[in-house]
Amino acid sequence: MGREPHPLGGNAAQYLAGTQAATSGMGALMGAALHGIGQHVDVSMQETLLGAVDGRLLFTEYTKEVATRGDNPAAGFQFCQDGDDLDAIILPWLLDRSKYQIAEAAQAEGVFAAPVLDVGEVVESEHFASRGYFVEVDHPETGPVRYGGAPFQMRETPWDIRRPPPLLGPAQRGDILRPPGSHKRGPGQVPPDRGYLGDLTTKEGPDMTKLPLEGIRILDATDVWAGPYTCTLLGDLGAEVIKVDSIQRFGSRGQLNPPDTRPDGTPPVMWAYPDGVPRTPGTQPWNRVALYNGINRNKLGITLNLRDPQGKDLFKRLASISDVVIDNYATGVFARLGLGYEDLKEVKEDIIVISMPLFGNYGTYSQYKGLGSTADPISGHATLRGYLGEDPTGLQGTVHSDAVASSTAPFAAMAAIFYRNRTGKGQFIDFGQCEAYMGHLGEVYLDYTMNGRVQGTRGNRHESAAPHGCYRAKGDDSWVIIAVTNDEEWERFCQAIGNPALDGRPALRHVPRPPRQPGRAGRSGWQWTVQRTTTTRSCACCSRSPHPQRGRTATPAWCGISETPLSIRIPANCLGEHNEHVFGNLLGLSWTRQRVAQYCRSRPDQRKSTIRADQ
């Protein structure tokens, strides 16, 4: 039995749920504007987090086994026969260079690497200064303070802090409720800064059959997780999403013939196939892999070779009939292909393009390549998560930034569509995934800019609750979280564990208990939980979708919308499944079925060339 699980840094669950609420609320607003439908939006924090665990839910559905911690053999420290020899070579080289020099040298060779920054180093970072991420706000009580800035940069409608956070008290309450530039108005008068809502709303009354984004088309040129899931959420809200796959580069569809098991004999989480263990890849494993199928529902799937002139032409034709184009490749990849924003603007003047490289399209680290686990150290998050007082060397990578980026980018897309419908202007959105992630650590950065304090790991402890921790329950690797935030809860907790006398101890009686002697309070909870099993409340908002090659599997919903409930209209697409429909019906090409198959080469063993995210 291993150590107890520990949380992410900051207040990850609350921030992610808030982001999903903003995105789903924006979707409902779009539905009201486009179709005249008002909605009640229900966001569950539990269901939000279920959607943030990449392919692990589908892994469990596929293999009937539970994905556990430490399931990535390529991450972390591994013993090997010549480990001492490697240490003798590598360690002197590392210790002779700064973390910045090491990361720069590795990136120059195409290796994903990043310096591990603490909170203070993030705020003072040259990269974020070059992008203007931290902004100074003149607060009436504190004076000038540096705040975290925009989660994404919109070229046509730049983000701005129009006022500092509100103060408490009745004198300020009116300022909280009154929008900037508002004036006294009579009943029923629409404030000038919101008049565009009436211009966008349908004049024919509500159409209760339409999803919020029905009539919007998204061209999805993304891979792995953050980009694809961005487009999936837009598809869930009703947009028609055309997913561009490549048979030259598989990405999240996995390897053509991946190994059946990891070194310990179990199947890799991301590349698991259905039908239990042992896995059965089948004749088309690329259509059955867990990671892809878990995050690519509600899309039409096509295949294109974007290095081929005809492939580029077809991509531009698709862009010309789309509202939004999204890519998450490294900085400059699509521009070098001749498919950047300026290129696409030539075929559609009001196109909206969202580019999602990890560190943005300009700045010191803009040419750095990586995954979510690369954003973790540069954002400072790697120094915040972990066991109390321990450094990051014992941690495996986390890709929570993918979940954050994919929850935030749909909001950016809808905001740009909203603006375009109002003005007729499209725009380019520079979406640095790391900066979207940093927006979820705002109070941590403020603690540094206001107080000079660099926060570190706190394990499962919390400054406003005790006991607050992860306690072992009865069973193998079974745990329960207990949080007591006030004296009333403390009294009920003591009753629940059958130890009411504990409530009378002066040292433990009042909140906050020093951090309220959390060790003494926690030990009593541990003695109780270790004798009991855990229960999990079922997710109330799940749906099962049929798939031609993997059967029916469960998918967690990320929000509930009252009038036009979200559903899985299209299961995750098979490779090139909708080529004929998209090229024939949407583009109007009079290609024969044989011509489509010949051009798209929908069998991966016919691959001829490679396009990589770093080219």
UniProtKB/TrEMBL annotation:
Keywords: Transferase. GO terms for molecular function: CoA-transferase activity. Residues 173-196, 505-526 are annotated as: Disordered. The keyword S-adenosyl-L-methionine does not apply. Belongs to the CoA-transferase III family. This is Succinyl-CoA:(R)-benzylsuccinate CoA-transferase subunit BbsF. It comes from Geodia barretti (Barrett's horny sponge). The lineage of its organism: Eukaryota, Metazoa, Porifera, Demospongiae, Heteroscleromorpha.
